[in-house]
């Protein structure tokens, strides 16, 4: 079964057929009566018929965990000892999943009924769920490891990356924080937590929607505080002392790749972005063209540019009548935007089939105001199911910017079809759709979009005011 051929939908209890719902109710009753073996058996029958019913998978895992603990087979919970899934079995299921991920899903449920927190089995469940576009099930697989085997930080990193791909940075930050609890020396997790926290706050405040110089000026007051959050275990003085020692070593051997990387990491923790960029770039040159180091250097370059822009923005805020400062700021933002387009284009040229890179180029072009050029790249980016909703939202905004309102509404409507729960992304899409309907004079459709948000989140932006005014005239 391919990813494109009608992937299974993740369903709620209300969407179950009457026969399957009856089995589901029996499974819940068996769990309540602590008849865990029977509860698992019923859940497996439900999942065989309706693999997208996540609640049954969750109940099966809870039943397995309780049953295993009750049998005092705790070693098996973590894939160590007699209760773990054998490597031979995992290999067979892995090969099966390449041809038939649905069948692999069923085989994995049988194994996880015996070893619910097995890292290898849950990792395979994640991979096969992703092949079937069952994104919540994929997250659940790694969340199971997070709850039962949190020392498996490799899979926790994978979970955090999954949440970032789904534009859920708040969840990613929580996962990274759990990783740091397990290993305070995991600098990737420390950095991931900091970046995800900042991204979550930016998403909440809608910085990306700033459409003018004044909008950007008003939005920047918390950036410094966010970037200083979740610092590594060392104090700043300790980091400076270590940097001084490493710098002495560097003076004697500037070809030592490990040393250069360590210095670069320290500059990153100190938030000295220009020096961090310089050393990561040098580390890339010393390595055998390590792509990870190249990406790290590019990220540090972005941070250095952002820092310079922030400094100028703050100077403008302190002296709003200074026309020269304002022109410097706008010129710097314009230059950086153009540079981001060039860098994104280079990445696409190196790997033209990567939908994520197409999205990044489309976003850069959108930010540069080149809406027509952004459209074909965003259309190609919709092939990636992990970012499809985000891409459709940006496509809607792009068509809106070109006054092509009917096409904008079509993109947003497609995005809504993929969004089942009323999360932050769905609210954002509905709000954008409401604004477009409002601009086109369709007050009824606009109000319908705003009401859907109002029903679940009274405080979201200005929806309460918009909805309540419609009743008072």
UniProtKB/TrEMBL annotation:
Record bears the keyword Repeat: yes
Pfam families in alphabetical order: TPR_16, TPR_19
InterPro entries named in the record: CellSynth/LPSAsmb/PSIAsmb, TPR-like_helical_dom_sf, TPR_rpt
Keywords carried by this UniProt record: Repeat, TPR repeat
TM region positions: none
Protein name: Tetratricopeptide repeat protein
Keyword Hydrolase: no
């Amino acid at each position: 079964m391919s990813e494109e051929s009608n992937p299974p939908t993740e369903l709620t209890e209300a969407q179950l057929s009457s026969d399957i719902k009856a089995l589901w109710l029996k499974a819940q009753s068996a769990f309540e009566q602590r008849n865990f073996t029977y509860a698992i058996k019923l859940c497996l029958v439900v999942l065989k018929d309706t693999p997208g019913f996540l609640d049954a998978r969750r109940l099966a895992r809870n039943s397995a965990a309780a049953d295993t603990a009750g049998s005092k087979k705790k070693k098996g919970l973590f894939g160590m000892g007699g209760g773990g899934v054998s490597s031979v079995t995992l290999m067979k299921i892995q090969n099966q999943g390449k041809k038939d991920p649905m069948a692999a899903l069923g085989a994995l449920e049988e194994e996880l009924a015996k070893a619910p927190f097995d890292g290898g089995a849950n990792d395979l469940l994640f991979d096969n769920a992703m092949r079937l576009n069952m994104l919540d099930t994929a997250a659940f697989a790694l969340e199971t490891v997070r709850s039962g085997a949190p020392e498996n930080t490799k899979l926790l990193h994978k979970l955090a990356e999954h949440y970032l791909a789904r534009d859920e940075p708040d969840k990613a930050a929580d996962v990274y924080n759990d990783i740091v609890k397990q290993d305070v020396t995991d600098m990737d997790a420390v950095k991931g937590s900091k970046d995800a926290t900042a991204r979550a706050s930016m998403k909440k405040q809608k910085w990306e929607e700033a459409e003018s110089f004044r909008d950007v000026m008003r939005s920047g007051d918390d950036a410094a505080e966010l970037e200083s959050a979740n610092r590594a275990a060392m104090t700043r003085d300790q980091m400076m002392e270590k940097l001084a020692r490493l710098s002495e070593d560097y003076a004697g051997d500037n070809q030592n790749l490990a040393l250069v990387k360590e210095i670069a990491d320290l500059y990153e923790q100190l938030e000295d972005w220009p020096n961090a960029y310089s050393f990561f770039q040098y580390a890339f040159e010393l390595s055998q063209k390590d792509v990870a180091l190249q990406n790290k250097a590019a990220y540090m370059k972005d941070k250095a540019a952002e820092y310079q822009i922030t400094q100028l923005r703050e100077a403008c805020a302190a002296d709003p009548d200074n026309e020269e400062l304002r022109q410097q700021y706008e010129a710097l933002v314009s230059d950086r935007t153009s540079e981001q387009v060039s860098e994104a284009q280079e990445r696409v040229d190196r790997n033209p089939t990567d939908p994520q890179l197409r999205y990044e180029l489309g976003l850069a072009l959108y930010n540069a105001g080149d809406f027509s050029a952004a459209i074909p790249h965003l259309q190609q980016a919709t092939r990636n199911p992990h970012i499809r909703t985000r891409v459709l939202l940006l496509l809607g905004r792009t068509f809106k910017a070109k006054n092509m309102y009917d096409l904008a509404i079509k993109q947003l409507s497609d995005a809504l079809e993929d969004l089942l729960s009323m999360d932050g992304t769905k609210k954002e899409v509905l709000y954008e759709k409401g604004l477009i309907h409002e601009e086109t004079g369709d007050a009824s459709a606009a109000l319908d979009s705003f009401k859907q948000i109002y029903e679940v989140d009274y405080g979201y932006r200005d929806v309460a005011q918009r909805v309540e005014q419609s009743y008072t005239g």
